[in-house]
Amino acid sequence: MKLKLIVLSFVFAIGFSSCQKCVECTDCPTGVTLDQAEFCESDFDSKDDYNSAVALVEAFGCDCK
């Protein structure tokens, strides 16, 4: 039983660490064209760069979730 719990914890840890934080930006106003609709944190050099990019797209009126 203890071994099963350890293996399950290991599998959960691997799955959790591989998750990416991504947002999809849609519902942009007319005239706003995006080169990409999805932004993932792993595509940027830092979390600050990622947050800035998402904030900029939202400032143009797009809805990012």
Structural summary, described in words:
The protein has helices at residues 2-17, 47-59; strands spanning 22-26, 38-40, 63-64. The chain is an alpha+beta fold and 65 residues long. Strands 2-1-3 form a 3-stranded antiparallel β-sheet, covered by helices on one side.
Give a quick summary of the entry:
With 65 residues, this protein is of the alpha+beta class.
User: What's the main sheet like?
Assistant: 3 strands, antiparallel
By helix and strand content, what is the structural category? Answer: alpha+beta
Q: What's the count of strands?
A: 3
Gap from first CA to last CA: 40 Å
The stretches of 5 or more residues where confidence is low (pLDDT under 50) are 4-18
Radius of gyration: 18 Å
Indicate the overall shape. globular
Average of per-residue pLDDT values: 79
Helix/strand order: HEEHE
Number of helices: 2
Output the strand order for the largest sheet.
2-1-3
- How large is the share of residues in beta strands? 15-25%
Binned, the helix content reads 40-55%
